Amino acid sequence: MDGTDDLTLLDCLNQIKWTLDGSLTYRMSCRSAICGSCAVKANGHAILACQKQASHLVKDNDTITLEPLGNMKPIKDLAVDFKPFWDKVDKVSPYLQPDKKTSEKETKQSPEQFKLIDDASTCIMCGACYSDCNVLEVDDNFLGPAALAKAQRFVQDSRDGKTLARVKELSKPGGIWDCTHCGECVERCPKPAEPFDRIKEIMTVALEQGVTSNNGARHALSFTKSVKSSGSLNENIIPVES
Length: 242
Ligand code: SF4
Ligand code: SF4
Ligand code: FES
Prior knowledge:
Layout: H1 9-19, E1 39-42, E2 45-48, H2 54-57, E3 66-67, E4 74-76, E5 79-80, H3 83-91, H4 111-118, H5 128-132, H6 134-138, H7 145-155, H8 163-170, H9 184-188, H10 195-208, H11 215-230, H12 237-241
Antiparallel strand pairs: 1-2, 1-3, 4-5
One iron/sulfur cluster binds next to helix 6, helix 9 and helix 10.
């Protein structure tokens, strides 16, 4: 395409669809990085097509390589089947579960309490983090970054009454401790949701709540103990204590 200097990648896709090939299939709606529907892979990394200037993505050979998001089945062209993504969000019970009978009045939060869940609340469910998570490439059972970020939003919500039950569930295989800490989801996230940071927050709550009967928690505790006692990691002891 010529004349793409002022166009976003999504504008280019629209130009192609409207003038060259009407069968080209992709998702879009808001064009403003709000709805989360236009995520695709460009040059190997998941991005929001409406958030990136095409000129910033063009490589030396004048091309942008586009692919559908990873870790989900392509349906047609750049559209993928989001069912596994939504199934995993559903698994973390993404709604408040107060332990008292719900008050007829609003339940207030302090600014400090809201700050704990503010970042996770910005997730637009675009799937960019899910697409590029390296654990999901090898383990379908992993809940993945978006569902875990959503989980943190309820684990640390002052109005929720199921914190212990939630962190117990999230500490099972496929949960928080299966994350490899690669940080790719933070790189890919177009919002402040930054899933890996949220996963670390759930880990902290799990340890504070005494949910430590699993390899991941034991590994974290042994790691900390080793550094505290000697200033370095004792690689011989950590696997044994984990
Ligand atoms: S930090 Fe964890 S959740 Fe995020 S991409 Fe890496 S393995 Fe996946
Ligand atoms: S956490 Fe970020 S990258 Fe993942 S679905 Fe939400 S907004 Fe998209
Ligand atoms: S079209 Fe809505 S986020 Fe890109």
